Amino acid sequence: MPVIDMWAVVSDPDIPDAVVERLIDRMAARRDGRTPNPVPEDDKPWLARHVVDAHHEGDPR
Asked: Structure pTM?
């Protein structure tokens, strides 16, 4: 299952601060049991730079 490597996004100096802040806000919403805001289309190319495969041994997905 592909996921965004948040640490890579946060530490990427090319990614605008606003994109990072929106990602952090979406993660906080999930943590708090709220529905996160959709990812803005303009953020997707930035976040796509750090998509990784999160498949773990024993995970059937």
From this structure: 0.79
